[in-house]
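Supplementary Note 2. Why include the ligand at all?

Several targets in our set were suspected to adopt different conformations when bound, so apo predictions alone were not considered sufficient. For every target with a known small-molecule partner we therefore ran a joint prediction. The input for flavin-adenine dinucleotide is given below.
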Amino acid sequence: MTKSFAIVGSGPSGMYAADALLKKFPSCRICVFDKIPMPFGLIRYGVAPDHFKTKNTSRQFLRTLELEQVHYLGNVEVGRDISTDELKENFDAVVYAIGAYNDRQLGIKGENLRGVYGACAFVGWYNAHPDFCDLNPMLDGETVAVIGIGNVALDVCRVLTKTRTEMEGSDISTPALDRIQSMPIREVHMFGRRGPIEAGFTPKELGEVRDLERCAAIVDSKQLPQKIEGNFDTREKGIKEKNLKILNELAEQSKPQKSIKMNFQFYASPTEILGKERVEGIRLERTKVIDGKARSTGEVFDVPCCSVITAIGYQADPPEGLKLNGAILENTNGCINDNVYVVGWAKRGSSGTIPTNGPDSRAVIELLSETLENDNNKIKGGYDSISKLLEARNVRTVSINDMKKIQAAEIDNARKNHPWEKFTKIESMLEVLN
Ligand SMILES: Cc1cc2nc3c(=O)[nH]c(=O)nc-3n(C[C@H](O)[C@H](O)[C@H](O)COP(=O)(O)OP(=O)(O)OC[C@H]3O[C@@H](n4cnc5c(N)ncnc54)[C@H](O)[C@@H]3O)c2cc1C
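The joint prediction is reproduced in token form.
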């Protein structure tokens, strides 16, 4: 019997899950829902705009959405337009691939001051995500503090410090580019509670900061260990060795002639964000790392800055009917309950690259297929029932052809030397379809 599946979320984990379902159940039907009209999640709205080639990964996912067996239903938010129970009633199984769209909190005084932004919001803003396009960040001073020592923190620092010419070829939103370029920036600090060994950078991303046109990376050689010590597998150790080599090169280079400094500040844990009505600075405590954990030293220092951007991880934002366990959806190896599954960042937390989601989604679909084999084969309404339900509720669903029309309009709207200009408002995307 033909099975019908719902996948909620069209980011990498959802799309890898769709591919795995098609392999396991060659005659199945799949509906892929996304709350945004345009698919592919963080490929469109997270990956740095100046890493435009990485966004090409979405081409393989587009081919899946174009298959006759697959229906893309963009602009449908599960929990708002349709309930989790309705999905369960209408599909043989539901796979949640909703990612993690809330920023984790620092949990320190001053965190709610104007000028503090989570990376999810800040990155969403420069990537034209409709939820964050009105962020209007306070980039009116010479110094920005970025909390976190991973690739997202690096992305933010790079985008803040590149020149307009260096941003050519990127798909950064024009209002964000203009705002960043008009900022009187002189210094961006990247603060990490722990040290270079614990940092989450990948060598390729770290290496990019060597060649920035107007920004010099500043690394204190006294903060760099002589060698990598700790319990790491060969792959991890290799990455850390490469990172250490790059950090040593950066520490040796001195480029005071560049107008902006990107300060790598390890062993610095934020304790308070300073300011009366808005961010005026940040207070940090020096740490030392013992057994991989940051410990206080009691030494405190303040750094003036106009805004603070936290890049310390994301947490899932589940629709009604699904429970959180910490930053992820409550699950056991991807199973939430009978015929309801979760994959990707919502399953395992906000770490890993696009390809990391492949094996993870395949393992969950393997588990799903084992459960379904024991199911009592009730016929489910699938796409036909759900599309009727959505129509009755006046939800303007976006099909894959609609999505292509919106994309064509975005290409038409592109500025010179940029691939496209993404719409920042859902209404503007839908207007293209009228
Ligand atoms: C800033 C940043 C930069 C990154 N850069 C890179 C990079 O350069 N290279 C790389 O390999 N990896 C990169 N990654 C990691 C990569 O993006 C993730 O591994 C991947 O996107 C996670 O996939 P996902 O499907 O779990 O979540 P997501 O990609 O977030 O997809 C989740 C989807 O679910 C949808 N959704 C959420 N809630 C609902 C709902 N209630 N109803 C309907 N739809 C919903 C969302 O709109 C979204 O489309 C980056 C991540 C970030 C945050």
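The chain has a mean pLDDT of 95. The pocket of flavin-adenine dinucleotide is lined by residues 8-14, 33-36, 41-42, 46-47, 51, 54, 77-79, 97-99, 123, 152, 155, 319, 344-345, 352-354, 357 (CB under 6 Å). Comparable summaries for the other entries are listed in the accompanying table.
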